[in-house]
Design goal:
The structure holds two protein chains of two kinds.
Chain A lengths: L2 E5 L3 E2 L5 E8 L7 E7 L5 E7 L6 E3 L7 E6 L4 E6 L8 E8 L9 E2 L3 E5 L2
Parallel strand pairs in A: 2-11
Antiparallel strand pairs in A: 1-3, 3-8, 4-5, 4-9, 5-6, 7-8, 9-10, 9-11
Chain B lengths: L3 E4 L2 E4 L5 E7 L7 E6 L6 E5 L3 E2 L7 E6 L2 E6 L8 E7 L6 E2 L3 E5 L1
Parallel strand pairs in B: 2-11
Antiparallel strand pairs in B: 1-3, 3-8, 4-5, 4-9, 5-6, 7-8, 9-10, 9-11
Classes of the chains: A mainly beta, B mainly beta.
């Protein structure tokens, strides 16, 4: 089955760090763009970061710029999100999303998400 | 930054009704717009890309139209399985953003 599965979400204190992972199965990620999209439970969707298939373009939403870092490891068929200086408002489900066109213009395949809770 | 708005925030219609959801961009985004459907507890699903191209496997009762700043998602005959929240999303620059969503329920 073609899918992506996120992991790494947990409860963390404000100011803390966390690293999320997303691994693909049933296909290889190397030709595809990848993004992280978050959703506060009961609220809307927010794109927070994306990386092109070749790593040549990386983007961040203003809300996370300078605090979060996206990376990919094609050998591990994975994408990662390093989250530093976490804030209460970063609490959300974090979804990994795949763009078959190679950029991060659309989100063809989504994971179910991993929950990050930032709380003291 | 390009801002996206949607109307209405929610709607309730009967099975078989024609349903229209509007998405407005704060500036011209050509046809750089996608639509997603999200059912409760499930990850979003791509319905339409490039404003009007139906994703493979999506029922033909879903159609997308528009360009520039004004876009429309139409469900030509609402079905019970269409209960969901619908989001538009632009990709006119390297910072894609979503609209706030439209929640669709069936009377």
């Amino acid at each position: 089955e073609v899918q992506v599965v996120e992991s790494g979400g947990r409860v963390v204190r404000p100011g803390g760090s966390l690293r999320l992972s997303c691994v693909a199965s049933g296909f290889t990620l190397e030709d595809y763009g990848l993004s992280w999209v978050r959703q506060v439970p009961g609220k809307g969707l927010e794109w927070i970061s994306g990386i092109y298939w070749n790593g040549g373009n990386i983007g961040y939403a203003d809300s996370v710029k300078g605090r979060f870092t996206i990376s990919r490891d094609n050998a591990k068929n994975s994408v990662f999100l390093q989250m530093d200086s976490l804030r209460v408002e970063d609490t959300a489900f974090y979804h990994c999303a795949v763009d078959y066109s190679g950029s991060y213009s659309r989100f063809d395949l989504w994971g179910q998400g991993t929950l990050v809770t930032v709380s003291s | 930054d390009i801002q996206m708005t949607q109307s209405p925030p929610s709607l309730s219609s009967s099975v078989g009704d024609r349903v229209t959801i509007t998405c407005q961009a704060s500036q011209d985004i050509s046809s750089y717009l996608n639509w997603y459907q999200q059912k409760p507890g499930i990850a979003p699903k791509l319905l339409i890309y490039d404003a009007s191209t139906l994703e493979t496997g999506v029922p033909s009762r879903f159609t997308g139209s528009g360009s520039g700043t004004h876009f429309i998602l139409t469900i030509t005959s609402l079905q019970p399985e269409d209960i969901a929240t619908y989001y538009c999303q632009h990709f006119a620059d390297l910072s894609p953003t979503f609209g706030p969503g439209t929640k669709v329920t069936v009377k």
